[in-house]
Sequence to fold (349 residues):
Amino acid sequence: MTTKARQRDTSRRCAALLVFLPLLLVIGVQAQEVGGAAAPPDELRILAYNVYNFMATAAPEQVKTPESRQTVVDIITRLDPHIAVLVETGGAEAVEELVSMLDKAGADFPFRTIVKGYDRRRRIALLSKFRPAEVCHDTTSTFNLKGRRLRVRRGFAHCVFRWANGYTLHVLGAHVKSKCFDPLGQTDIRRYEARLLRYHYNDLIKKDPKANVLILGDFNDTPDASPVSTVCSRRSKDIRQLYDLRPVDRYGMSWTYCWDKADSYTRIDYAFASYELLPEVDFAKTVIPWFPEWYIASDHRPLLVTLHPSDQPADATLLDRFERNHRKPDAPMASFHKGRVVGTRRVRR
Fold:
């Protein structure tokens, strides 16, 4: 081969390399992403926690004492979740302060994201030890009420996690309208926000009917109320319903919120699972952790959901654990009721 022929051949090879180089780089990056995906832990711990107005230190609306802020950090650190859905945070500055305090306490959360909803004072934050494959928060959903178009005040968090074993988990976070007075009707606002969350879930399982979905958060209403019923969609078929995992504490109690002015203890914080996620739920370790100092940190107790992140076939017998979408309480000891009568059977007039 002559010198000119060799030069032409070299030029053709270089040109071909330049054409295919971008494709090779893309393939290499994709392979790195797939190969570099983290392996899931044997037990995946997911925390839902209303941290009660955890604002930035310098924020004018700061109401938490340093002791209260530190107790929030201590509780999260001791639970050591892999993913934490936190409501009532004060936004980016407050979350960075919280993450810094957690880091000093030995709880590392490399990833954090904030839902920038219409309510700028209280926002949903998601902290994670894993970087999600997708972040698709909903901050634009609206509804019509009494002639006005309203936005969902805090939006909805939505992160999609994928691990090296192929397991995919959708984690959604919500903070529905409180029972504080609103001229448009606080009950109706809460109902509409719950309905939009259900629509978000419907769209998700329409794309992937076998999606593993976990919805966590503060719904500001009791299990028998319409917002909770709307999210669960009890009239749907089993595979389309959401199931209330109903974590309990070591005494079998499921209340999550204390309103001290009324001396009232109610359940308004929830963890809802899709039908396909139920086989992976470790019910014995899906609990309300007990901390004597819980009330120093917040007026809410944390919920901890434990999953075994490996796809298992859904089994209809799992539904025996539920009654009207709610996880049944553990049966009391036989001696608790048997043969005991407290008070009189007949009403005294």
